[in-house]
Amino acid sequence: MDLKQEFENIELSDLRVIATLGVGCFGRVELVQIANDTQRSFALKQMKKSQIAEMRQQRHIMFEKEIMEEVDCDFVVKLYKTFKDAKYIYLLMECCLGGELWTILRNKGHFDYGTTRFYTACVIEAFDYLHSRDIVYRDLKPENLLLDVKGYLKLVDFGFAKRVPDGRKTYTLCGTPEYVAPEVIKSKGHNISADYWSLGVLIYELLTGTNPFSGADSSATYEIILKGINAINFPRNITRNAAALIKELCRDNPDERLGFQKGGIDEIRKHKWYERFNWKSLRLRKLSPPILPKVHDVTDTSNFDTYPPNDSPPEDDLTGWDADF
């Protein structure tokens, strides 16, 4: 029996909140357990319906649900069930108690070559799975990469993900400013190639601890991005091969980016910077992770920041936009 079948009879009232794992734009992510099951825990993402409607994000939320329901990949967080009530919609998901990659990066300052290779290889595996199904992710950043208890990385938060059939483009400006590709800023239309740009940015940030395109605000950041990767100073600890890979991923012309060429995403795997990296062992989860998180039990939230209790509940939203949720 697969897990989705197992969750068929679970109701929202069966879930017990243990702690808050994160707070986002539309609500919170809670660590929960199912009544009478102390062996497992899950992440429950609860989002305020009225706020989603106010910010006109209904379609994005529906895309998130639809895409996550069909995704089954070891490098992507799994969705088990959805719920809704008058105030919130809920996603019951796999939880990753190793914490956010962002927290680990903040504590360490930057990562070495081996650590960066391992984590970005996990992202490449996730992208390969998504892109082969015409899904553009559009929100790569260390905050959206979580470590499971074994130290492997999983992609989380599909709020900006969208299915874009091969040969087509999408035009919405979305994503985190520092990671947005130039064609997204220019509203020229974008596709999976925008994800390869953000992968180049991620490699730079993990190796240096700083984002190459950071400005005082989003407008300043976009200006820096539009000047291109060649205007960016590369510190000495970025080797020649790493710099070459970043520049090939962050080409201004999306059609010229590594990963979007004839050989597809395999061209990234074959790049000199990943030389002798064991992709097969990674897929089989046999590679030793660079960092093994300390997780004592299924309710241990010590790898996450602490958050104050929930603020006042939102107003009911009975407009029915979530009828298909």
UniProtKB/TrEMBL annotation:
<dbReference type="InterPro" id="IPR000961">
    <property type="entry name" value="AGC-kinase_C"/>
</dbReference>
<protein>
    <recommendedName>
        <fullName>cGMP-dependent protein kinase</fullName>
    </recommendedName>
</protein>
<dbReference type="InterPro" id="IPR017441">
    <property type="entry name" value="Protein_kinase_ATP_BS"/>
</dbReference>
<dbReference type="InterPro" id="IPR000719">
    <property type="entry name" value="Prot_kinase_dom"/>
</dbReference>
<dbReference type="GO" id="GO:0005524">
    <property type="term" value="F:ATP binding"/>
</dbReference>
<dbReference type="GO" id="GO:0004692">
    <property type="term" value="F:cGMP-dependent protein kinase activity"/>
</dbReference>
<dbReference type="InterPro" id="IPR008271">
    <property type="entry name" value="Ser/Thr_kinase_AS"/>
</dbReference>
<feature type="compositionally biased region" description="Acidic residues">
    <location>
        <begin position="313"/>
        <end position="325"/>
    </location>
</feature>
<dbReference type="Pfam" id="PF00069">
    <property type="entry name" value="Pkinase"/>
</dbReference>
<keyword id="KW-0418">Kinase</keyword>
<feature type="region of interest" description="Disordered">
    <location>
        <begin position="298"/>
        <end position="325"/>
    </location>
</feature>
<keyword id="KW-0547">Nucleotide-binding</keyword>
<dbReference type="InterPro" id="IPR035014">
    <property type="entry name" value="STKc_cGK"/>
</dbReference>
<keyword id="KW-0808">Transferase</keyword>
<keyword id="KW-0067">ATP-binding</keyword>
<comment type="similarity">
    <text>Belongs to the protein kinase superfamily.</text>
</comment>
<dbReference type="InterPro" id="IPR011009">
    <property type="entry name" value="Kinase-like_dom_sf"/>
</dbReference>
<keyword id="KW-0723">Serine/threonine-protein kinase</keyword>
